[in-house]
Amino acid sequence: MVAVGQGELLVLKTARGRIGLAATVMASATAMLDSTVANVALPEIGRDFGADVAGLQWVITGYLLTLASFILLGGAAGDRWGRRRVFVVGAIWFGLASVACGLAPSLEVLIAARILQGVGAALVTPSSLALLQASFVPDDRGRAVGAWSGLGGLAGAIGPFVGGWLIDGPGWRWAFLVNLPLLGAAVLATKVFPETGTDRSGHFDVAGALLAVLCLAPLTWALTEATTIGWGSPRILGALALSVGAAVSFVVRQRRAAVPLVPPVLFRSRNFTVLNIVTFVLYAALGAEFFLSVYQLQVTSGWSALAAGSALLPATIIMLIGSSWSGQLATRIGPRPQLVIGPLLVAAGLVALAGIDADADWLVDVAPGAVLFGLGLVTFVAPLTASVMGSVDEVHVSTASGVNNAVARTGGLLAVALIPPLVGLTTAVGSDETTEAYRTAMFVIAGLAVVAALISAIGLRSPRSRRSARDFTCAVDGAPLQPDPRACPPVTADTAAAGLGLAGGQRAAATVPGVQRSGSVEQ
């Protein structure tokens, strides 16, 4: 790897440092905004193109599919070909795909453009954090990543509001076209970054990444289309067979590859395995909820895009205010109680939100559920993050974070693809049928949250939380991509040897300065 001299590193308080931080925030926040804005835009898109729910699902599913499939490869590409280079390529890619979305003449073209957007987001998101970690002086890395997290979380929080304003105003196409000035400014601002991560002698698992795509893509297509063309269709059965074959090949590849995309050693940790199962189930429920509630409020209740996008604002406010407290509490009492109570509160909120119908009143039918939902999120998100980071040794903590993020996004992807057709939402006609299907779906995802609580209660040992430089947690579209740079400093030969020489992740963690200090964990 090309070493970056201390004189070339950025200092946060300087103009170059602030410009560099702004570049990473603008690009990653744009990707985050798009993931939430599209949910609000779906009904208007459906009216313009005469599309049904099954078709509209792919506007969300196509984006999540490529984002989840390529996000690990995106990080590895930055390490091999240069983090700034991959960041710029990803931002330009995302911008061109946004133009294609905004100008799409048909639903099919829009879906194709969204699939391309997901690839761009998979390049931008991990590269933005890697740039911060590699380009700032060590003393400023924690503050830089904390600012990235907070501002990115704010972008996710205001996404539905901004989306609703644009859709009710100039139209849904501007929800995509508005990305261009932000991405253009981000690309220009990357000139302040030194290039890092240009080690072309190393290897990364391209075959593993392609097998992951071959597993997810046909599976998602089959789950989405099966209710339309039938589960016994040769096309559906062929897609499922291809997905299973790719999944088996992926596991074999990871066991044999010299540098696997997902090192099997991670899953020797019981807590890591259990926590990723919990992540998959919980983020499946969250992904489906964000799709369902906004759709129901616009299609059945007749709310405007702005009103529907702002309906869950209490949950966002609770996340912004309470996540620091939640992380600090987890370091004192251990995260397991919060990983049980939080999902149960989420389940209660989802059951309350199931009452939304054609005559929905925000104060009566939405606000109570939004508050319960927010209390659940703020209770479990930070402890879940901390527990994943604390379940592996420092040598593998960055990879573990990336795996957990991919698991979270895959859970949301499959839930959005599978649940609407299973409950009949894709074939529902009229407000009564739509409401009945919506309520069934909400009860299903509430059940998923309860299952996650049970898995946490039964499966987890007592992982200890770690200190994070992030002051609060907001965004819930995916788990964190990077560990805390103070609690989990870059691994050197000495620290790697020390960590591997200790028995168990907790003893290894005890050697890392700052691990025992209280704090919170953030996206």
Break the fold down into its secondary structure elements and pairings.
Layout: H1 15-49, H2 53-81, H3 83-102, H4 107-135, H5 138-168, H6 174-177, H7 179-189, H8 206-229, H9 234-256, H10 270-299, H11 305-310, H12 313-333, H13 336-353, H14 362-390, H15 397-423, H16 430-459, H17 493-501, H18 505-509
What would your notes on this structure say?
This protein has 523 residues and is mainly alpha-helical. It has 3 domains: 195 residues, Growth Hormone, Chain: A; 56 residues; 252 residues, Up-down Bundle (Growth Hormone, Chain: A). It is 73% helix and 0% strand. It is built from 18 helices and no strands. α3 packs antiparallel against α7, α4 packs antiparallel against α5 and α15 runs antiparallel to α16. The radius of gyration is 22 Å and the shape is globular. It starts with 14 loop residues before the first helix and ends in a 14-residue tail after the last helix.
Key attributes of the depicted protein:
523 residues, mainly alpha, Growth Hormone, Chain: A, disordered C terminus
In short:
Helices cover 73% and strands 0% of the residues.
